[in-house]
Amino acid sequence: MRPIRTFNVTPTLPPSLAPLRQLAENIHWDWDVGTIDLFKRLDPGLWASCRYNPILMLSTISQDRLQTVAADGGFLAQMNHAVERLEHYLNAQSWYDQNRANPTDHECYAYFSMEFGLTTCLPVYSGGLGVLAGDHLKTASDLGLPLVGVGLLYQEGYFAQYLNADGWQQERYPINDFYNMPLTLEHDAQGNELRIAVDYPGRKVYARIWRVDVGRVPLYLLDTNIEPNAPHDQDICDRLYGGDIDMRIHQEMMLGIGGVRMLKALGHEPSAYHLNEGHSAFLALERISMLMDDKGLSFSEAQQLAQATQLFTTHTPVPAGIDLFPPDKVFHYLGHYAARFGLSHEHFLGLGRETETTDNDAPFSMAVLAIKMASFVNGVSKLHGAVSRTMFGGLWPSLPADEVPITSITNGVHARSCVAKSTQELYDRYLGVEWDSAGVDDPLWDKVSAIPDEEIWRNHESCRSHLVVSVRDRMRKAVKERGGSHLEMERAQEVLDPSILTIGFARRFATYKRATLFLRDVERLRKIVENSLGRRVQFVIAGKAHPKDIPGKELIRNIIHFTRDEGLDRFIVFVPNYDIHVARWMVSGCDVWLNNPRRPREASGTSGMKAAMNGLPNLSVLDGWWDEADYVATGWPIGSGEDYEDQEYQDEVEANDLYELLETAVVPLFYNRDNHGIPRGWVSKMKAAIRLNTPAFNTARMLQEYSNLGYFAASDRGRQLLVNDYAPAKALAQWQSELYQHWQQISIAQIGLSHDVDLQVNEPLQVTARVYLGRLQASDVSVEFYQGGIDVDGELQGGQATAMVYRGQDADGSSLYTLNVAYGHSGLQGFSLRVLPNHEHLSSAYLPRLILWADPDHVSIDVGNMELPAFAQVGV
Questions:
Q1: CB under 8 Å to 346, separation ≥6 — which residues?
Q2: CB 392 within 8 A of CB 381
Q3: CA 529, 534, 535: angle at the middle one, nearest 5?
Q4: Which residues are 115's β-sheet partners?
Q5: I need a labelling partner for 747 at 20 to 30 A (CA). Which of 233, 283, 552, 790 fits?
């Protein structure tokens, strides 16, 4: 029977405990260990059974218990202290206040992501991408950035993992009870649910808005599971990454288009839009449409403004990881934008294609749409930036790969969210409370060496013991849930040994991550695990495979079968239902963090950063972030950064290297103890991991880079383009239209050199050039001398571009340019000339994706004759 009315019933808190509600509703508690202790003290068993959800806890705790603690002076003092910390945190002067010059009034940065991993009790994330997004919001709050998050609220989230008796991954989809989560439903001025509508073919789909308070930052999540939506539209926000390709388009329309409409309904006017992966790229279409409707701009004018204020972060190191949609589906769902923009079928689809094409079946790429609509694009590690420049280089076919305008900002992790409580307290004592945001040059890192070896080691041993206890408890519950035998329950209580070397491996079970690489040589692994000298090793493994990834599921089953068949299930343990909470046990309680993807397919990786902050050395292939870390001082590299054509051979070589490192380096260092039982050499490596990796790979550094390179610049560009009724944006659009019309008229006709081809290092070389610009002006372009070494294929490599100086026009109407240069390196060197667009409001010369290189077969080179009378003629 359906109810005729529903009510949200909240607990009756005694007046003295009212601040508990304030603390519970802002998930600042997730990274404030004192507030977590407060809720745990309220009822430890209930805290765990509620999955560390203070809202649910306050809804289910007994009234008797509330009355008891309401009269407990110690509890009230602890609660009031937590409230004071929260209020101080929310109101303190921030990094943004001190570092943002001349912000606009109500400046705001919108951060769009398909998933957000903030805390265990908000299961709207699948893995690393979502946890990174959650850390992004937490750190934006720490730094005081005026940022808002935009995402979707999934009724069933990703999935809860369990294994059947055969070790095959099964999925459960628990229903999320939004009213018992740290969520607040947004209402309008009349007290009604605030809703937005998105146009889908033949209908509108409505969504309500939930807010998560992440410290000082709001995260807004759209929820379609409401009437009057039809049942299939209510399902849009059912499952993260669930359903078929149509469901994916439905979700990405709601995220991008609905997200923009939601911000407008909430009264936010972002000055910068940040797309975390390409899932939200449709937001560019909606922004352009809104600017056309609200500001009276043309398509090209609105596109210039949208592009100037958008940032795109790609996390994908392989083309297969990009969302590609069939063109007929894109036009079916979004063709009304083409009509609104006045674009042809081909031109509209070209927004998401690398090049204009007559292939009607060429797919529409969300990453390409995001890149074309952004003025700032980055990968998430230095190596990934280089991979991305190659992968997307086709968008700039005439540009050398190292100049493709995709930079990198290496990921980081939120320190207070991943470092164990006892370890945080250790750092607070010896380093000071600012360690979590201190930069690499901060002298406080010199104090790491002063932490007594005994103290850091005993603390870590305690963390390892906690990991073992927690894993045993989870394994026992998993056996019970699937109806396992009493014997299985007993064996679950005996897994792992809290005193031996523990290696952790936890990540998404995609095949390229090679979760079973360490199983390749059974006998060699057995000798390592069952070391005859008592120097034993154990492995703790966790992670989920996508529900449709059969090869990934087979990897999990292979691990389970291997450990059973080889009798190693006490020392190689797979922990089911990996989530944020399990990750925190593992990155603090293991001794070594293992990562062995096929290079260069790991865009960044962040779990190893979390482990390093807890003092764990990494044992990893040189991929992602580890490639730029001090992998000798803070761990061990598997291989030397080689790339292989033969994957089977790569697996063989790197598995052998892994075994060799374990046998000769890792295990001996761990078990080499002094008379006090302290492994001094190991602790030294732990300290190096803390000192070198914590400041370099935390999100404080990361967000400061995003702010200085992206948010501030995008906001300033937007401000410049909208003055005088958008006059600069209109002028830029008109200029770019004329640029495209007349670009083909440009030709580099003549180059003059003061010397012959043989030069001495650093010998001055005078260069002149005649360039015919047609109907364009000299101010529309930049003419550059491009010099560098010559590789074995006769191509310029490592080129350096220097702008030439415009001197005027000759009698024939050609523009004249000069430059004095020199070569700083010996050997075979070369040069070319190129022409790029130039405009005062163009954020990058590469945005129009136009470039003209001198044609060796058609340019005239004049050596030794530097007398060009036309220079004097123009009086320069």
A1: 356, 358
A2: no
A3: 60
A4: none
A5: 790
Q: Under a CB-based contact definition with an 8 Å cutoff, are residues 624 and 339 in contact?
A: no
**What is the residue whose two structure tokens read 């922004």?**
287
CA–CA separation, 575 and 568 (whole Å): 15
Which segments of 622-682 are extended strands (E)?
635-638
- For residue 108, the Cα-to-chain-centroid distance in whole angstroms is 20
Worst-scoring range by mean pLDDT, 168-172, 308-312, 793-797, 808-812? 793-797
Q: What is the pLDDT of residues 343-353, one digit of tens each?
A: 999 999 999 99
Beta strands in 153-254 (DSSP E): 160-163, 169-172, 184-185, 195-200, 203-214, 217-223
Structure token digits, residue 804: 């030439």
Residues forming beta bridges with residue 845, ordered by sequence position: none
Q: What value, to the nearest 5°, has the Cα angle with vertex 518 and ends 517 and 523?
A: 125
In whole angstroms, give the CA distance from residue 557 to residue 574. 10
**Smallest Cα–Cα separation from 288: which of 322, 260, 265?**
260
359-379: b (≥16 Cβ within 10 Å) or e:
eeebbbbbbbbbbbbbbbbbb
All residues at 6 or more sequence positions from 78 whose CB lies less than 8 Å from its CB, including other chains: 34, 37, 38, 41
Residue type, 867: E
Helix (H/G/I), strand (E/B), else coil: 814: coil
* Chain centroid to CA 784: 35
Q: Rounded to 5 degrees, what are φ and ψ at 362? A: -60, 130
Rounded-to-integer distance, Cα 470 and Cα 570, Å: 15
pLDDT of 733: 95
461 phi-psi bin (left φ>0, alpha ψ -120 to 50, beta other): alpha
Burial class (CB in 10 A: 0-12, 13-18, 19+), 196: buried
Question: What is d(CA 728, CA 730) in angstroms, rounded to the nearest whole number?
Answer: 5
